[in-house]
Specification:
Metallo-depent_PP-like, Immunoglobulin-like, PhoD-like_MPP, alpha+beta, Purple Acid Phosphatase, chain A, domain 2, 7 helices, PhoD-like_sf, 14% helix, 516 residues, seven-stranded mixed beta sheet, Alkaline phosphatase, single chain
Length: 516
């Protein structure tokens, strides 16, 4: 932790503290290789700047340099940085692949702030990189009611569809930025570490999709360098870099950060991998995830992010504690994919929350059947519409406990299944009646093959009110069916409006939920 002179920062209108966390990437050969040590010249920031997990008084700021150096961050209310004060952050070194994060503290709530990042050479004091700038909006304080808006999606660079500038690159990030959201929720599959890219793919109409390919994206990721290269690849896209500099993120992970449908303790039987122990792969992937994204390095991945009196965001981790993918029809309440501690935390925090809306970011949907080959299930549901079995038992417990505690305003947001949908759950249609009706909204992929729709499991009474799915499996981004969702909460009425949008930002469907 780097401490700053509070009196000095008060003169600038801000109070901040710098938290030091690890960072990292690159290594190996090719475009993503760690650069050779160059004592001459100025350091260079290689992959832009990002911010994340913004609250009413704090935020994480991230960058990466091309060599060892000291991270320096300025923060100001003004875009010209007049009166800004500088924070000395961590030393960016090879153990973290030259990435780093600074925690800004003591920020004013509900304000647009500007930050500027440089890296200072360790060899030549005073020699610094060209600056990169970003901006963020802090959350409203606990008692400040104002409009709140955010976007969400998931599934980035999957099924072999990489960056092709001729088809707009990752242009969905431009469309999301144009909605001017307060923050962005990534519902997992932030990268596809198990999805190698080839240079060209022939589309159904004969056109050629030409991928930008790096060495780390040419095979399945196994080494730490290769996992780091997945995140570095996505940041080669200008739309994503511009979005990341302008919009704070909330990130969760799903399966493709490691490999498809993984669970702890799994041993692979896959000739593409020389390392067959999934726990080893997951540890490397987790390190890269924490190095390359503006996420906290302390505590579990599941967390609550307060956003004023109208919104609490509950970020779930449905992977770290996941049980094996079997038929998912067991009756053992000790099994599941949340784990006992996370399940108890979720129930406890939902009961404690005084926010009007409790948005639960679930990286696996509740009622959508997601098979993992014949006879095995990847998700919560398994297709048996009867009383809860398997992983459904966990969610039955959460829904029952919150219903009995009269918790209101619960909304679930997810991606994962590569199409867009609105599902309404109601006990009048369900095999179990002890829960309060709720909505689950699905939006994705951001840039991957489109699939679906999947079957719904009737246990919790879901009804597909809206579905937008492709005509065939693995529909390319060139053919459309890429999606994001937008949520806006009115500061006066507290009504919550959801738009399900396409790649260009056009609204495909919307609904407004009155404040409970």
């Amino acid at each position: 932790m780097t401490e700053l002179d509070r009196r000095t920062l008060l003169r600038a209108g801000l109070v901040a503290g710098a938290g030091v966390a690890g960072g990292a990437l690159l290594g190996g050969a090719g475009a993503n290789a760690a650069p050779a040590w160059r004592p001459a010249g100025r350091p260079v920031l290689t992959h832009g700047v990002q911010s994340g997990d913004v609250t009413a008084d704090s935020a994480l700021v991230w960058t990466r340099a091309d060599r060892p150096g000291r991270m320096l961050v300025e923060v100001s209310r003004r875009p010209d940085f007049r009166g800004a004060r500088q924070l000395r952050g961590p030393v960016l070194g090879p153990s973290g692949d030259f990435t780093g994060k600074v925690r800004l503290r003591g920020l004013p709530d509900a304000e647009r702030l500007h930050y500027r990042v440089r890296v200072e050479s360790l060899e030549r004091h005073g020699v610094v990189s060209e600056p990169l700038t970003g901006s963020l909006t802090t959350a409203p304080g606990r008692h400040r009611r104002r409009d709140v808006s955010f976007v969400w999606t998931g599934d980035i660079v999957g099924q072999g569809w990489g960056i092709d500038p001729a088809y707009g690159g990752l242009s969905i990030f431009r469309a999301m930025r144009e909605t001017r959201p307060d923050f962005y929720l990534c519902s997992g599959d932030t990268v596809y570490a198990d999805g190698p890219l080839v240079e060209s793919v022939t589309l159904p109409d004969g056109r050629i999709w030409r991928n930008l390919v790096t060495p780390e994206k040419s095979k399945v990721a196994e080494t730490l360098t290769e996992y780091r290269g997945q995140f570095a690849y996505n940041l080669l896209d200008a739309h994503l870099r511009e979005f990341a500099a302008a919009v704070p993120q909330i990130n969760q992970w799903d399966d493709h950060e490691v490999l498809n449908n993984w669970y702890p303790g799994e041993i692979l039987d896959d000739p593409r991998y020389t390392e067959q122990r999934v726990d080893v792969l997951a540890a490397r992937a987790s390190q890269a995830f924490h190095e390359w994204l503006p996420v906290p390095d302390d505590g579990p991945l599941y967390r609550r992010i307060p956003y004023g009196p109208l919104l609490d965001v509950f970020v779930l981790d449905m992977r770290t504690h996941k049980d094996p993918n079997d038929g998912n029809t067991y009756a053992d309440p000790k099994r599941g994919l949340l784990g006992r501690e996370q399940r108890e935390w979720l129930i406890r925090e939902l009961k404690r929350s005084t926010a009007t809306w409790k948005v639960i970011a679930n990286d696996l949907p509740i009622g959508v059947v997601v098979p993992d080959g014949p006879g095995a299930q990847e998700g919560v549901a398994q297709g048996d519409p009867g009383t809860p079995l398997g992983r459904e038992l966990e969610f039955a417990e959460v829904l029952r406990a919150t219903h009995r505690a009269r918790v209101t305003g619960m909304v679930f947001l997810t991606a994962d299944v590569h199409y867009s949908a609105a599902h309404h759950y109601d006990p009048s249609r369900a095999a179990v009646g002890d829960f309060t009706p709720f909505w689950e909204f699905v939006s994705g992929p951001a840039h991957a093959g489109a699939f679906g729709p999947n079957a719904l499991d009737g246990t919790f009474g879901p009804q597909a009110v809206f579905v937008h799915a492709p005509p065939h499996a693995n529909t390319s981004p060139a053919e459309g069916f890429q999606h994001f969702g937008e949520v806006s909460i009115d500061g006066e009425s507290a009504a919550l409006t959801v738009h399900l949008r396409d790649r260009d930002g056009a609204s495909l469907w919307n609904t407004t939920l009155p404040a409970p």
